[in-house]
Amino acid sequence: MRAEETNDFSLTVTSFYLKLTGLWSAVNPTEERERRKAFSVTIVVMLIGLFIEVRDFYHSISTSFEDTIFALCNIVTVLIVLCKTCVLYIKKSQFSELLVYSEKHFWHTNYDACETVLIKECKRLCIIITCLFNLFAQSISFSYILEPLVDYFDKNVSVRKLPFNMYMDLLLKPYFYELTFLIQTVSLAAYGIGYLCVDNIMYITNYHAAAQFRILQYRISNITSLINIKKRSAASESVPNCTADRCYTKFKECIRQHQKLLAYYRKVDELFAIIVFEEILLFSIMLCLDGYLMLLGNSSPYRRAVFTIHLAGCVSELLMFTYSCNCVLQESTQVAESFYSIQWPVLPMNNSGKMLRTDMRLILMRSRVPCCLTAGGFFTVSLETYTKNLFITGSEYSCVVLHASERVLVDPTKRNSIF
User: Fold this and answer.
1) How far is CA 311 from the centre of its chain?
2) Is the pLDDT of residue 400 over 70?
3) For labeling, which of 47, 277, 314, 349 is most exposed (least CB within 10 Å)?
4) End-to-end CA distance of the chain
5) SS3 content of the chain, % helix, strand, coil (to 5)
6) Contact present, 230 and 337 (Cβ < 8 Å)
7) pLDDT above 70 (res 115)
8) What angle do CA 359, 360, 361 make, to 5 degrees?
């Protein structure tokens, strides 16, 4: 798909990020070569960042427990981005098919006036979520380079700190510090882009799928619009058989659309299930690590700000992601509610009327089973997942704070240290 063919801001930004990471689908051999080059550069930069974090973690084990937790938190962040990028690249053929189908049937399709309003609301929500998520992700990336820049310009130019420790004496050599700082900044930018692109396309896919279920509800509720109920009643005047035939023809189109949406979202679940599982698992770990460092870490104000921004970003992203999944879950189940607005009792009991009533019962039963995005097939992702994560994390925070308070009361000589 060509990003410039759509006027949707969220799709334009997401396609730009996916092209930078080499995950966007190519339409010719030249674009395929460029895509492979971009993906190779992305993987190399991410592996360099992973090496730096693992080395920092190894050296900090024997020096400071707080630095160890900080390095561990960074390693978890790197693993999230690296795993999402690799999984999406491995399933690039499925991802390309999903993009092509979405472009043909969702993004570039003719809708009537009411359906256009629903699509515009969906696009507006996608733009808001994309902007908020980009803001949080870029704030997290910028917070890592804030402390070294402040120390370099305000305190003393001889104080040479890096966003991530290198444990090397070569920083005193001319221009080596600047080069190392540039490499780490580029790595942060690469991780920020990789962190954004995969989640953005998941949000857009979920919200557009929810909008399609709302359009299906609208079309089902207007199946019997051919019948003027105000002027016609079953007691005074019967509905012609030809009207019932036309209503059943419209109903069959809705059945086909429902089947296509179910098949579409099954493919979405197959594509993103592993990514969702590792993301929720690692996010749970990051919430605990960031919360501990923010509440109990004897760190500088800048590092504490990094922890605060990181925690706020994780909580916000988890909320936006679970909310998008919850929208699909609710809208897919509300398809059954739209059948109650159909004036099917006034239809005659001819062949079309009987088939409509029978098929309507089947779709009612199928709609009771919602479409949902699963975490590797283990559990359904919804807003309940978000609340459970926050509840468990909050309980762990309380236990840590209570345990630390008891340690301080027992040993007054260690009031400035938790351990």
Assistant:
1) 16
2) no
3) 349
4) 56
5) 80, 0, 20
6) no
7) yes
8) 90
Q: What is the pLDDT of residues 290-333, one digit of tens each?
A: 777 777 656 666 667 777 777 777 788 888 888 888 888 888 88
DSSP code for 240 = P
Q: Contact 218/321 with Cβ under 8 angstroms?
A: no
Give, to the nearest 10 degrees, the angle between helix 176-221 and helix 29-60. Answer: 120
Q: To which residue do tokens 């795993």 refer?
A: 83
Instruction: Note whether 292 and 400 are within 8 A (CB).
Output: yes
**93: which 2 tokens?**
């053929």
Question: Which of helix, strand or coil describes residue 374?
Answer: strand
Contacts by residues 399-405 (CB-CB < 8 Å, ≥ 24 positions apart): 400/292, 400/295, 400/296, 401/295, 401/296, 404/296
Secondary structure of residue 297 in the 3-state scheme? coil
**Which residue do the tokens 């400035």 mark?**
416
Interaxial angle between packed helices 65-90 and 241-296, expressed in degrees from 0 to 180 and rounded to the nearest 10: 150
Burial of 265 (0-12, 13-18, 19+ CB in 10 A): buried
pLDDT score, position 396: 47
Confirm if 313 and 191 have CB atoms less than 8 A apart: no
Q: CB of 43 within 8 A of CB of 52?
A: no
Tokens 């609301």 — which residue?
A: 121
Report the pLDDT value the prediction gives residue 218, as an integer from 0 to 100. 87
Alpha helix stretches (DSSP H) within 297-382: 301-333, 351-367
One-letter amino acid for residue 311 of the chain: L
* Single-letter residue type at 98: L
Q: What is the DSSP letter of 213?
A: H
**Cα dihedral: 276, 277, 280, 281 (round 10):** -160
Using DSSP, state whether 415 is helix, strand or coil: coil
Whole-number Cα distances in Å, 194 to 85, 198, 243: 7, 7, 54
